[in-house]
Design a protein that fits this description.
The protein is an alpha/beta fold. Helices cover 38% and strands 17% of the residues. The protein is built from 13 helices and 15 strands. Strands 7, 8, 9, 10, 11, 13, 14 and 15 form an eight-stranded mixed sheet that branches. Strands 3-2-4-5-6 form a five-stranded parallel sheet, with helices on both faces. Strands 1-12 form a two-stranded parallel ribbon. Strand 4 (112-114), helix 5 and strand 5 form a beta-alpha-beta unit. Helix 2 (13-21) runs parallel beside helix 12, helix 4 runs parallel beside helix 5 (119-132) and helix 6 packs across helix 7. Residues 1-28 have low confidence and may be disordered.
């Protein structure tokens, strides 16, 4: 299959818009096909993210989606149709996610959902959406369960799968600290646990000299993770695997520095956003190791990158209250652009089955959020979002990438 480059898919605000409004190949009016949520004039999309509560940091994903589709609508929409995008608050709560998702499907009758967040909330609506045949695309979670096209063909992750990430980080530990003593802090839910097995298996397969000597958990409702970090710092661990999100990530990085503990720190990729590290103190995050697949905003290295420039143009016009270094917002921009590309490819066949078809054949598509050399890898038989990633080290200001990206 041909691998498309960033150049082919456009890299400025103008070309992103142009790609989204180009007419589909000529079809007769009779060839138009619609499911609920689509018509000659409109495409309706839905999403649930935490606009409030402990995960509210990620609510910006929804605000960026609104801005992106408003930008497209201001320039003619997608194949002549305006996009109505509904981002609803689930507060990172499974019951609220169920309520909001049912409303989007049964009352608002959206064509598809994309970019919804959280392993636990999305698990709560996983079977429901598949029973309804509603696409649940580009999820902001990398849980391994989303790669099950035979059983749950309507659901696809949008982040690197957590097992992929964990295996690559474990291989890195074995290579640089073959006798590592590892302490782990992880979120006490499916998100946190999805990293553990694959990480430990790589250690075992390498001979077991590098070992996990302590595990600590936290709940999203915990006000701090201080006690867990104190326990880990006293354990004798010389490697700290930090599997946290949002404020817990910022707190834990800061606490490690306050304790004077100096382990090799590993961080889950979803928590490497600029806003999270800034809250932790960039100097405290120095030398952290993480998987990288995306560009940053607000750093000199990418300030002239055409995709970053395009995002900045969008931010200034539609989202002036969002900080220019908010990488979570940039991630939302990349996902919105990808969803726009899926819809553009659908042409006038705006059925849920056709949306799924084009989502599952995105292999080779380069999101504006991605680093060069990283593309989506989806196929109808394998929903792994991407198999090629970089290992990188935070230098206190930016991420220094390992030489070439690693393919699992």
């Amino acid at each position: 299959m041909k691998k498309h480059t960033r150049r082919e898919f456009g890299a400025t605000a103008l070309s992103v818009i142009a790609a989204s409004v180009l007419p589909a190949p000529f079809v007769r009016a009779a060839d138009k096909k619609y499911d609920p949520g689509a018509s000659d004039t409109e495409i309706k999309l839905g999403q649930t993210v935490p606009h409030s509560g402990p995960g509210s940091l990620y609510g910006v994903l929804g605000r960026v989606g609104e801005a992106y589709f408003q930008m497209l609508n201001d320039n003619g929409g997608i194949n002549g149709r305006k996009v109505k995008f509904l981002t609803m608050d689930d507060a990172y709560s499974a019951p609220k996610c169920v309520e909001a998702t049912r409303r989007l499907v049964e009352q608002e009758e959206v064509l598809a959902l994309y970019g919804s967040l959280g392993t636990a909330p999305q698990t709560a609506v996983h079977k429901y959406l598949n029973s309804k045949g509603v696409p649940q695309l580009l999820l902001n979670t990398g849980a391994s369960k989303w790669n099950d096209p035979k059983t749950y063909k309507w659901t696809m992750a949008g982040l690197p799968l957590y097992p992929t990430e964990a295996r690559i980080l474990a291989k890195h530990v074995v290579s640089v600290k073959p006798n590592a003593k590892i302490g782990i802090l992880y979120q006490n839910d499916d998100f946190g646990r999805d990293f553990l097995g694959p990480f430990k298996k790589v250690l075992a397969d390498a001979g077991g000299k590098a070992q996990v000597i302590m595990e600590q958990t936290y709940d999203l409702t915990d006000p701090t993770v201080d006690s867990q970090l104190i326990n880990l710092s006293k354990s004798g661990a010389d490697v700290f695997y930090n599997i946290t999100t949002g404020k817990a990530t910022s707190q834990s990085i800061r606490k490690v520095a306050e304790l004077g503990w100096k382990p090799l720190q590993l961080l889950s990729a979803g928590s490497t956003g600029r806003s999270i590290l800034t809250a932790a103190g960039l100097e405290n995050a120095k030398d952290i190791v993480a998987i990288r697949y995306n560009k940053e905003v607000g750093v000199p290295r990418y300030e002239k990158d055409p995709d970053v420039v395009a995002f900045e143009e969008l931010r200034k016009k539609y989202l002036p209250n969002i900080d220019p270094d908010n990488t979570i917002a940039f991630a939302g921009y990349g996902q919105a652009a990808t969803m726009g590309e899926i819809l553009r490819r659908c042409g006038d066949d705006l059925t849920r089955a056709n949306v799924l078809k084009h989502a599952t054949t995105l292999a080779g598509f380069h999101s504006p959020y991605f680093l060069d050399g990283i593309n989506y890898s989806y196929t109808p038989d394998d929903y792994t979002p991407m198999k090629t990633l970089y290992v990188s080290i935070f230098n206190g200001k930016d991420w220094d990438l390992s030489g070439e990206p690693m393919t699992e």
